[in-house]
Write a structure and sequence with these properties.
single chain, about 60 residues, mainly alpha, 2 helices
């Protein structure tokens, strides 16, 4: 998998997590622990995207 396709996949997963979080926030019965886990996953994906982009600019 090329770097660009990997980044595109991570960006797709990030957008999907954002949508899931927004959907969960619309439902008052959403488990706060589950919501926190989704936010944590989204942040990990974002961090990975940023790490790959910064490594790509260094090379």
């Amino acid at each position: 998998m090329s770097m660009q396709s990997h980044l595109a996949e991570l960006e797709r997963r990030h957008a999907e997590m954002k949508r899931k979080i927004e959907d969960a926030l619309m439902h008052p019965s959403t488990d706060s622990l589950q919501l926190a886990n989704m936010k944590r996953q989204k942040l990990k994906i974002k961090d990975e995207i940023e790490r790959l982009r910064s490594n790509d600019t260094l090379h």
